[in-house]
Amino acid sequence: AQSVSQHNHHVILSEAASLELGCNYSYGGTVNLFWYVQYPGQHLQLLLKYFSGDPLVKGIKGFEAEFIKSKFSFNLRKPSVQWSDTAEYFCAVNARKAAGNKLTFGGGTRVLVKP
Amino acid sequence: GAGVSQSPSNKVTEKGKDVELRCDPISGHTALYWYRQRLGQGLEFLIYFQGNSAPDKSGLPSDRFSAERTGESVSTLTIQRTQQEDSAVYLCASSPRGTTETQYFGPGTRLLVL
User: Which single residue of A89, B9, B38, B88 has CA 20 to 30 Å from B112?
Assistant: First the structure.
């Protein structure tokens, strides 16, 4: 069975600081990788995804993530955060051969950006 | 177009009662998923529908949980004889075909069992 771990439960940082959120997964097969974000009071929404090709993927709002297959990692980064990036971030994977492609989520990281 | 909608947005019930949670997927999406998020935890997969059949029910935690779907439309998640540990946010998502595309999530139903 696949599993996902996010290393930090809470992150507090100031505007303009750089952000990196760790995500590691456990699964022996080929996976699709996702980062979802939930802003306060809003739906869960897709930030970025990796299916194949260039392991450095760019998403919305200046976020990017790098898939490192040898490390089973898919860390999320943003060079300079804004107050509006305050949210909860979830890493998720699905096994490419699994019927229906159900997602397995990490526990989430709450990010608070101080103005 | 409209996104995934869920109702009710909040539900408070007494232990032992049955509850029904509803999900309206994005029109045309054949795949529908239910997830549960307990306080301070990530989302747990419950069940997946392709059309009105459920090829994957592996995440349903007990036989008190059941779900059905009418065609490629509305789905209902039913929890019988609710327990306090059922308290969570129940999220529904849909995707066009249930392959590698993105899942679109609804706002969730926050269930509190007293």
Answer: A89
| Among the partner residues A100, A101, A106, nearest to B42 by beta-carbon distance | A106
B positions 22-81 inside 8 Å of A (CB): 31, 33, 35, 40-45, 48, 50, 55-56, 59
Q: What is the 3-state secondary structure (H, E, C) of B24-69?
A: ECCCCCCEEEEEEECCCCCEEEEEEEECCEEEECCCCCCCCEEEEE
The beta-carbon neighbor of A44 closest among B50, B95, B105 is: B105
Q: Could you tell me if A20 and A75 are in contact, meaning their C-beta atoms sit under 8 angstroms apart? A: yes
Structure tokens at B69: 């779907």
Where b means 16+ CB within 10 Å and e means fewer, A58-72 reads ebeeebbbbbeeeeb
pLDDT in tens, B67-100: 999 877 999 999 999 999 999 999 999 998 766 6
pLDDT digits (tens, 9 = 90+) for B11-53: 999 999 999 999 999 999 999 999 999 988 889 999 999 888 8
| Residue type for position A80 | S
Report the alpha-carbon distance of residue B75 to residue B47 in Å, rounded.
11
Assess whether pLDDT exceeds 70 at residue B64.
yes
